[in-house]
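User: These chains co-purify. Model them together.
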Amino acid sequence: MTWRREAGSEPWRVGVLFSQSGVMAVIEETQLRATLLAIEEINQGGGVNGRELVPVIYDPGSETRAFALCAKRLMVEDGVTTIFGCYTSSSRKAVLPVVERLNGLLWYPTLYEGFEFSPNVIYTGAAPNQNSVALCDYLTETYGSRFYFVGSDYVYPRESNRVMRDLLRSRGGEVVGETYLDLRAKRADFGPVMRQVRNAGADVIFSTVVGYSTVYLYQSYLEAGFDPRVTPIASLTTTESEVRAMGSEVAEGQITAAPYFQSIANERNARFVSRYKKRYGDDEPTNMCAEAAYFQVHLFANALAGTNTMATDIIKPAVLDSDFEAPQGRVSVSAATSHTSLWSRIGRANRAGQFEIVRQSAMPVWADPYLVGRGRASLSATVR
Amino acid sequence: MADVRSTQEAAGEGSEISSLEIVVAVRRDDEGDALARELLRTRSRVRRLWPMSTRLPEDADVIFCELVPELPQCLPWVPGEPLAALVAVTPAIQAPDLKLLRNCAPHAVLHRPFTPGAVVTSLALARAQFLYERRLRSRIDKLDETLRAFRSVERAKTILMQSRKLDEEEAYHFMRRQAMNRRVSISAVAAAIVDSHDVLG
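Assistant: Joint model of the two components:
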């Protein structure tokens, strides 16, 4: 048995599932990069308990079914139990039965619509109360309360709009129109939407368009002659990466709510941004999804150092209640919900393709995925 | 084998284990033949499939399958979303491959050598487990939907209480009656009330 490595030096193999092709690659590739960056950092620091982290990476190509099959392959053929991955809610829902049946642990670094609590998922992106509440307040106070909803046609935009509609009503506002477009929508599809927005007399275009068609939405907006100082596009999903894809002059003045922006001024973020750029290129921005993908690997590695096993039933309790100094600030995983307490921020895109933070919470906001306390809990967002 | 037959009938007229579509992807040896014969006695349709195809059929109620290393790849579903009850047939000599077993997530195991009684037992157990799992999954789906709908039901109730001067109980009954008359769910009625209230201001 001399050829066999000692058990104590075998690498830790983890699964990584982000699309590198198809319509979602524009954002999922940044999550892949941030995941690999964190893995490299951990390995450069000697790995976890002297053992290297080794990613097993598949490209599901933005196809929902492929996510399920890749997750099965990771767990069944590669013997992996921990998976970092998924951007869309459809892909998460496709992976869910696999990790639940085989008792794996999926780390999900993306904002989503809430109303879920799988024992086999750690949620590190924002739940609706962590971004929508502050965004709704800001928009109704600043621009008015007539919202037009534009979204991609899949589960997240519809569910997320259900939440936003509720928030808006409770503030006396109204939804003056609602349109869903195919994930593969073309530029021409957005022209009619802009006319409807104008006819409806909207104060705000609330967008949950994701993937490459985000670019067309913002381009069509400019073509239609709207002014972001009067009728902005407000989004939960347009990050620095989408802004880069459309050109920063196209996005200037538009609003996004997120736990993280590249522009956050602290030392931890400066280190993250400079490492990311050094590794992937000076013009590659970080974004909220990449940041969550990055810090969740560190949360995992810290827990693994304590348990020295990736067995889900052992490592998951070690993850719960743990915290980490992330680029967005200190974050912690709630034992009650397996969701992460995150910072709530509103950013306005500037000419350089970065977001100027116009409002942020005074402390991390607890995730309330079932919106149990919404309305009663006072919002901790404060004007800077 | 009269004993087996009576056991089967005792299990509630064989409601869960008769007249099924059963696929038997098991070696064509004496034991495999005996297995197929025993399954036929449950008045089910039995299809034999050997050598095992790279993708097992999706339209079976129950699949009896040799626990071979490539089985996880042959199953036409991902773990957690089975389309049929799965019985893994395990070999007599080797120690069972527990990791392989876990990855296939069968509902029952039939270990060689087996008796006719063991065949029927594994069939009944696998079918019952599969159906129970399916009921649980559907319950979770409904719970998820109910949780989401709950918010609109609450809001619709408030609207009804204000606009029609109903008390809480009456408002709820109103929605339930509407749902029954129109043969839709209460949450659909609630959503309609909330939406029309929006339009009317």
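Confidence is low (pLDDT under 50) at residues 1-6, 375-384 of chain A.
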